[in-house]
Amino acid sequence: MCEFGESYVVIPIMKQTIAFFLLLIGSILSINSPGHAQSLDLLTGLHPRPQVSYIYGSGYSSFHFTPQISAIVIDTAPTRGTLRAVHYLESQLKQIRGDTLPVYTASQFPYFGSCIRIGEKQEWYINYQLSFPNADSELHPSGYILDINGNILLAGADSDGTFNGVSTLVQLIRDTDKFGNIPALHINDFPDYPIRWVFSTHNLIDKNQISTLETIEDTMAAHKLNGLQQNDFKNNIYSVFEGSYPQYFYNVDSLQAYSAKSNVEIIPGVFPFGWSEGILFHDPDIAEGFPTTTSFLIQDDTGLLLTDPNMMLPNGGFENVSNGNFTGWSFYDGPGSVFVDSTTVHSGKYSARCTNFAAGNAGGNCRFEKSLKCRPFHGYHMSVWVKTDQLQAGEMQLLAIGTDGTNTQGLTATQYPSSGTSDWTKYDVVFNTLNWSQVYVYCGVWGGGGRDGMVR
């Protein structure tokens, strides 16, 4: 479907192909300026493509840039949105043409020369100008009318619409700058989607990243994208401001000011990627609790709480040894990195000495694992005693991982400091089994190095 004047011409395939080219040639020849043989390409090249757009035929005039007499005219009491749109147009004219245009209010304009009238439909001056014969009667939210016939009239349905109209006008100016004028045309446009966001994970503490975001926002303004969903991926900083550097706040203010000029709303990601530790840093009690349907079994004569027999580690105390190996575990890393130790113990006769980490695992891991049956939505407690001697790097963890044989889900998120040298220290973790009836229980060191660590 091709659009000429105010009518739509539907061209059937084959039979009226010649008529189509005649109409096309006739339309091009009717344009006042001979330099615009590509006028239809001018409209089809706009991005995003306007909802309604057409080139005027004979009897209409192009807009000529004449710095001596051209001007921008706004309402006597313009809105902030109109002023933002005019500021953006001036900045783009400076880039494209090397100079800006004078700005007059309606009462100041001397009424000679060509002008660009800009404003929101609600402003009396623009509303008055919309009485031209070919104006569309309807303006959609964030939409605009752009009409060029000697002068330019840009009427936005609202502040966003006015800025979107300027964005289209800037494209037209760029595409026709070598001709010095813009052909007579009419556009009535509005976005199909009210939310048009760009996703960002830039680190705002880095000034270079701010420059990168400003460049991105330049592109957003040119293509009518209206939201920057910004997640400070590295620092999760929106949740924890206390530890921020002064430079961070300066950068945020700078980005916010630039975004306002670009008509881009910043939408901060307070919970980026599902992380919540920033908020919980202030108050861990706001975390949602897990449902628990546990029951307690108490020994009748002592009143002691009895442990679920299925969740008893068969060799949790490392007392059962056979041929120099610990029995009862599903697996543990080695050989060559775990040894039975009878000299340095916390209680009982033995402890597990973890050393020569690379010998047991290229990643420096030294872990004990056992698969156990459990009750869904029950709470369990797991603890370990640890002693270290010049242990380098590494993470000491107590992990419970729910499984059904195919799928898995971590039920704990522990990470205890374990490097250096320390005496026997107890670590505890409580976990909920959720909907799992089987768990893998892990205890040990990930990525260790140096000398020794003993567990009990």
What does this structure look like?
With about 450 residues, this protein is of the alpha+beta class. It folds into 3 domains: about 1-195, 2-Layer Sandwich (Chitobiase, domain 2); about 200-285, no CATH class; about 305-455, Galactose-binding domain-like (Jelly Rolls), CATH 2.60.120. Helices cover about 25% and strands about 30% of the residues. It contains 9 helices and 26 strands. It has helices spanning about 15-30, 40-45, 80-95, 125-130, 160-175, 205-220, 245-260, 275-280, 355-360; strands spanning about 1-5, 5-10, 50-55, 65, 70-75, 105, 115-120, 145-150, 150-155, 180, 185-190, 195-200, 225-230, 265-270, 295-300, 305, 320, 325, 330, 340, 350-355, 365-375, 380-405, 410, 420-430, 440-455. The strands form 7 sheets. Strands 19, 20, 21, 22, 23, 24, 25 and 26 form an 8-stranded antiparallel β-sheet that branches. α3 (about 80-95) packs parallel to α5. It is elongated, with a radius of gyration of 36 Å. It starts with a strand and ends with a strand. Mean pLDDT is about 85; it is low at about 1-40.
Briefly say what this structure is.
With 456 residues, the chain is an alpha+beta fold. The chain is 23% helix and 31% strand. It contains 9 helices and 26 strands.
Reported by name, the CATH topology of the largest domain is Chitobiase, domain 2
Specify the CATH class of the largest domain: Alpha Beta
Shape: elongated
Number of strands: 26
What's the gyration radius in Å? 36 Å
- Helicity range: 10-25%
CATH architecture of the largest domain: 2-Layer Sandwich
**Proportion of residues in extended strands:** 25-35%
Mean of residue pLDDT?
83
Roughly how many Å apart are the termini?
80 Å
Largest β sheet strand count, sense and barrel closure: 8 strands, antiparallel
- Give the uncertain stretches in residue-range form: 1-38
What number of structural domains do the residues give?
A: 3
Structural class: alpha+beta
CATH H level, superfamily name of the largest domain: Chitobiase/beta-hexosaminidase domain 2-like
Number of helices: 9
